[in-house]
Amino acid sequence: MSDIPAPPAEAAAEAMAVETLEIQLLLEAVYQRYHYDFRNYAQASIKRRLRQAREQLGYPTFSALQDALLRNPALLSSLLGYLTIQVSEMFRDPSYFRALREKVLPHLRTYPSLKVWVAGCSEGEELYSLVILFREEGLEERTLFYATDISQEALDKASAGIYSLDRIQLFTENHRKSGGKSSLSDYYSAAYGRASFDKSLRQRVVFSDHSLVTDAVFAEMHLISCRNVMIYFDRGLQDRALGLFNDSLARKGFLGLGAKESLRFSSHAGAFTDFVKEEKIYQRRAG
């Protein structure tokens, strides 16, 4: 056997292949041990986040991280912080919320009771945006809101409703641009550099752990808002999530997606019509 080292290009390719295999085994271990399934997330994104996690958590290899994770369940919460993107803002993309206010809610107003699902609610910014919008339009009292995420840490932060005060100026401007009918300051109190949103905004909210990858339908919804979540899924997983939304929506219910997301290439595209095309708001067909 020759002791001549492999050329740099071959060595790099071999190292990359080993890393890819380690990542596959790590994701399989997370699924088998803890039932969180990241195996079909977009590969470039998941690799980037796992490399960051491995480095910052202090493990020399993904195999070492996997070994620690299998033996120490407390490490899972730290890893999920890297694998789930918890970045949002209140009334993000104000034109989306204005379209809900002006075009979707007039339809929802005809129902005696409503169910709204914020799928992948992160730390609650979009949830509170919707509750405030429904309150301003006089629909909160007849609406039950479901806020779900795979991260319990994110759900805990969402249910607390506390945000850094330096984010409030952006939230306030977004609210104004969305057609807000009140002052955002009516809904929170500020102290010690933090804004704490009023508990009354949570009185009709159910917070729950739910995975779009592995879990099933749990209620019939009139509006589902799932924005900037599926961009991290591969095509098959996107299709699975859209099928779940289709099965979860009431007849002629509404689905809102993120600006970079679409139904176009999904096998479920035929189940929906464009309702506000430019804002990625769809309506489930009556059939």
Main attributes?
globular; 3-stranded antiparallel β-sheet; 42% helix; 7-stranded mixed β-sheet; 9 helices; 10 strands
Summarize the structure in short:
This protein has 287 residues and is α/β, with parallel strands linked by helices. It is 42% helix and 18% strand. The protein has helices at 8-34, 43-57, 62-71, 75-83, 94-108, 125-136, 152-160, 168-177, 235-248; strands at residues 114-119, 143-149, 162-164, 188-191, 194-197, 205-209, 221-226, 249-257, 272-276, 281-284.
Topology, element by element:
Blueprint: H1 8-34, H2 43-57, H3 62-71, H4 75-83, H5 94-108, E1 114-119, H6 125-136, E2 143-149, H7 152-160, E3 162-164, H8 168-177, E4 188-191, E5 194-197, E6 205-209, E7 221-226, H9 235-248, E8 249-257, E9 272-276, E10 281-284
Parallel strand pairs: 1-2, 1-7, 2-6, 7-8
Antiparallel strand pairs: 3-5, 4-5, 8-10, 9-10
Helix pairs in contact: 1-3, 2-4
